[in-house]
Amino acid sequence: MAGYRVEDDYDYLFKVVLIGDSGVGKSNLLSRFTKNEFNLESKSTIGVEFATRTLAVEGKVIKAQIWDTAGQERYRAITSAYYRGAVGALLVYDVTRRATFENVDRWLKELKNHTEPNIVVMLVGNKSDLRHLLAVPTEDGKSYAEQESLCFMETSALEATNVEDAFAEVLTQIYRITSKKQVEAGEDGNGSVPKGEKIEVKNDVSALKKLGCCSN
Amino acid sequence: MMMFGRLRLTTTMVAIRSLAVVFFLLIIGGRWIVFADGSSGGGAAGRNGYSGGLWSSAVAPSNVGLAVAVTVMAGLAVAFTVVYSRRGGIGSPWSLRRRKHALQPEQWNAFFDEQGRLSDGGVKFLKKVRSGGVDPSIRPEVWPFLLGVYDLNSTEEERESIRQQKQKEYENLRRQCREIHKRNENGCDSKQTAQSSNTEDSQVLDSHDNAEVNSSKKSIQVEESENLNSILQDGDCEESGVTSEDAANDSDSTNSEGTETSPLLAKEGAENHDTVSSDSTKSEETETSPLLVRDEAESQDTVNSEETETSPLVAKEEAESQEKDTLTPSSKPKSQAEEEFTTTWQRIIRLDAVRANDEWVLYSPSQASVSDKKARGIATQVGLNDYEHLEPCRIFHAARLVGILEAYAVYDPEIGYCQGMSDLLSPLIAVIEDDALAFWCFVGFMSKARHNFRLDEVGIRRQLSMVSKIIKHKDIRLYRHLENLEAEDCFFVYRMVVVLFRRELTFEQTLCLWEVMWADQAAIRTGIAKATWGRIRLRAPPTEDLLLYAIAASVLQRRKTIIEEYSGMDEIMKECNSMAGRLDVWKLLDDAHDLVVNLHDKI
What we know:
heterodimer, A: alpha/beta, Rossmann fold, 7 strands, globular, B: about 600 residues, mainly alpha, Cyclin A, domain 1, about 60% helix
């Protein structure tokens, strides 16, 4: 599940959106994941930006196209246009700011309004390095995620903790759902862009059994 | 051009007469020499792709007969003038060949008469700026004219009184900000005991960027209250809400009125004239950049009669409409605006302020070398304290951003604060060291730019559709390609539109582009564009939308790549977002000019 690959050599392209309040660290999660960079002074995102990274998931090459959106509510109408075609989402809050966690509900509603019902969503509590300022206990995040059937993880873009895992988990889930659906419904991978090979059924079935949070 | 020779032989006297017309027109067009080359059999047509096409299509029917020949000649005459007025004789003020130097200090000083008035009402001044920008050394003096803080016809004396008046108004706005802090703080006290985590959320200062570094920091709440206390002590305001800074003029302002007296109300000057601008009424109040004093009598009046915060900005501008005064205050109830101020704007302003970068440092040595003590002092005054990871000049810069952006949010509560606005303000405060003056320049800048930040997104959508139209008219093939990709809405230039190329251009490039754009807007605002510039108007009509033409030009510059290589809107967006550092601002303006000349009357 690692490694940076040549851009155009992939089996699947998955679009994933990063959403959440301003200043929770969305852009840094993105740059940590796609460039292994972190910038304390990264500017506010105006509108939408995106970056890609290609990685291997269960023997397939997945190109993840990750869309980073502006957090301020003012920009929501315009950014919502970019939900189109998203098959995954990381809904980010800041573990040191309770309000950002309380807004998660609104973000989730917004997401559901604009995307396919089977979109894979992970709740991400970022800035876990700031333990002394913790305002949202891990348990709170976890129980909310359970209640809403979301994946959950706490991350630190600054320390590169769990960032890779969070994205990889989401992409894996997407892949499994997509390939399962493809098996059931022929070649129509809804929302994803399969390119090249067919899915190997046996791997996916066994994989689904091991599967964690997202599939309840 | 060979064809032209043939054509001439087949014509009669009538045709020759019309040929004379051609000559005449060409002389007018300033291209006599080129024409002579052409008629003697040279290949001059090849110099210009447009004329080549015109020749070949025009010549075919010319052998048919006399009448046709005559018609063709007349047509050619027109074609020639059109072609040359586009590309040659009347060229872009920004083309390489014509590029002028930036406005120099000596030239600038020479524009003024003994009373300190721009001698020709600013015509030469604006012309100069729009063709070459402004030398960095005089930007602080020049920008207030470009941005409408000072009227182009004002005298030195008038400007001085305007300056003083604006200073007071700004101080009043700052006082209102502090009062809101204070009320919020009082309100928070009770909540704090009840639920500490919640209080933290409503705190003003909780940018974590800083906290990430400074792990030993005290709790946010503690710092916050200390800050507010120190502010309050500073300002001896308590009941009346009058701080020491503005006590002299504010006897009429009470706590309860504090926010209502936002200058949005105050702008109802005695002399607001009401040339109504064509925009929708709702947006009116902004177009109206308040700030121009037209003539002595008026400005004197204002200054004398309206010393206090309610002194209007002596607006006399075209856009200045009375509706504004009645509309704005009701557009967002005070309580709602104040709630947004405390729950959202204050926090995001600070968040963005501490992450403003330092690319301006080279351009402002005095601010770059500010002392640590001074920087921290100012940060305390505006209640900024998440800055431990920053060096003094950036603390200073961040604190100034906070002060001015908060004042703006109070001044224009319909917009308040929206991310991206700090991008627009940052260069202004780098250039203009006085907060009040920088604020009013920002107000002038925002009078147009604020539409980018409206909640209903009307402004941004209008602009995106304008870019789309420009592309459609200029390059239908590219447009069809965009349609196929479902990208004809041009959302991929969204960021360029919102922050006016700030993210794509370097600091210096941005300032050049903005100056040219401001000069265009000033020419329109002051009526110079209509009245004086006859020929200039023909060849490079000032436009409110220069930026949009420039944005369209930046896309058109990449048309080949977009058409041939990109098969998704995402790829185009990536291309646009990665233009940073790869743009030549004068080339961009030159191309934009070309689009303006060809399309402004169609769009």
